[in-house]
Design goal:
Layout lengths: L27 E6 L1 H18 L5 E7 L3 H8 L6 E9 L11 E4 L9 E9 L3 H11 L5 E9 L12 E5 L5 E2 L15 E4 L11
Parallel strand pairs: 2-3, 2-5, 5-6, 6-7
Antiparallel strand pairs: 1-9, 3-4, 8-9
The structure holds guanosine-5'-monophosphate and magnesium ion.
The site of guanosine-5'-monophosphate has 18 residues, from strand 5, helix 3 and strand 8.
Length: about 200
């Protein structure tokens, strides 16, 4: 298998021509990636992943909670048998700073000799994905790859990279399409940047 060879490279998303819907404009400053653009890119990712794993049984391991929308849209395109499990892991509490990893839900599936695809919402420092990969590798899967919707390469503090990347985003705190600020905004159908007043004075990310 040759990872992501057929996936067109992710482009740096700086802004979208789409306007922030009025219902969200009090809190969202800028729309970065529109819903149709996310749908079309995730469809392409799913097609390439399906080709890469052709004939193999895939185990999808997704990280809670930020992957919920991405995961749901990605895996509905896979027209082959797969197993799926979720890990609860969080690197920060309430706000935005990365700290120690906290496991809130452990994996149930046995990964030995399985082809495993780890799905996360966003790759920033890389600490989360690095730690999760190391943990899963201890189960000796047949293969272990990673897939993220968003990548912030300017935030990287590890040598961890993802095999499949949806979009490259600037070094800003983004919300929507599963990503939260203080457990809000996960339901937004697009990815956007919050207005500073939402964080409150002195607590900007
Ligand atoms: P890392 O460990 O790579 O620094 O961060 C990964 C985790 O931090 C992500 O899974 C996500 O939960 C959170 N995170 C990093 N950057 C952002 C961001 O811009 N917005 C949101 N909502 N979460 C982020
Ligand atoms: Mg996360």
């Amino acid at each position: 298998m040759n990872p992501s060879s057929r996936l067109s490279p992710p482009v740096l998303v700086s802004r979208s021509r789409a306007r922030v819907p009025a219902a969200y404009s009090d809190d969202i400053e800028q729309l970065l990636i529109s819903a149709p653009r996310i749908r079309s890119r995730v469809t392409e990712m799913a097609r390439v992943i399906a080709e890469d794993y052709h004939g193999k049984r895939l185990v999808v391991v997704a990280l809670l909670n930020g992957t919920i929308l991405f995961l749901a849209y990605l895996i509905r395109h896979f027209e082959f048998p797969l197993s799926m499990d979720l890990i609860g892991v969080s690197s920060y509490r309430g706000g935005t700073s990365s700290g120690e990893l906290e496991y809130t839900k452990r994996l149930k599936l046995d990964l030995r000799d399985q082809h495993v695809l780890v799905v996360d919402d966003i790759l920033d420092t890389g600490k989360t994905l690095c730690a999760v990969k190391a943990e899963l590798a201890r189960q000796h899967p047949a293969s272990l790859r990673t897939c993220v919707l968003l990548d912030k390469p300017d935030g990287r503090k590890t040598d961890c990279e993802a095999d499949y990347v949806g979009f490259i985003v600037p070094h800003l705190f983004v919300v929507g399409y599963g990503l939260d600020y203080d457990e809000r905004y996960r339901n937004l159908p697009f990815v956007g940047v919050l207005r500073p007043h939402v964080y409150g004075p002195g607590s900007a990310p």
